[in-house]
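Supplementary Methods, section 5.1.

A reviewer requested that the exact input to the structure prediction be made available. We therefore reproduce it here, unchanged from the version used in the analyses.
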Amino acid sequence: MIQLQKIAKWYVNGGNKSYILRDIHLKILQGEFVSIMGPSGSGKSTLLNIIGMLDEPSEGLYFFDEQPVHQLKERQRNELFKKSIGVVFQAYNLIDELTVAENIETPLLYQQVKTSERKALVADMLDRFQIVGKKDLFPNQLSGGQQQLVGIARALIAKPTLLLADEPTGNLNSKQGEEIMKLFKQLNEDGVTIIQVTHSEKNAEYGSRVIELLDGQIVG
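The structure derived from this sequence is encoded token-by-token as follows.
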């Protein structure tokens, strides 16, 4: 599904290259649940953003479902992203001015899904995550766990084949975090490929494989 070859990311600082990622070779198969771990500053989020097409590598090759992402134009990358990838953020990234239902609906607007179909899909998500009673509330009226559920529902509504999660339980208490991880495990068993960045060894155990980063390189 995903193949990275010799991926590097750097910034030029005073005429010198400051590497964030260096010589990344990685293959992830459809249906895997992979955890990326490493200390702060090791390049975890940058690697996740490159996989998610939210950032571009400075060099290297990236194939997604055999498509050469490194050769695609921005519009083509955006289309591939919208069709295939859902993202769950640590800070939820919900739109404050929109209700729960409207936040969940947002990805479908970008895909120009018909109104009747959008409403049906949103209703299904609200029911699936047991937040029907919250549909008309705004993000600031929800707990952290509820906001994260809305973020996950929004990430899944367009039926992505790949779900990316950057410290998805970082702002939650232990009970809420455990519920989110059990949900991820179920989604993975239902066929969704998941890649999560986490500091938590307990969370990493929900996955099938751990990739360790140190100083921008894969060490295990």
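Helices lie at 44-51, 74-84, 100-110, 115-128, 144-156, 174-189, 201-204. These observations are discussed further in the main text.
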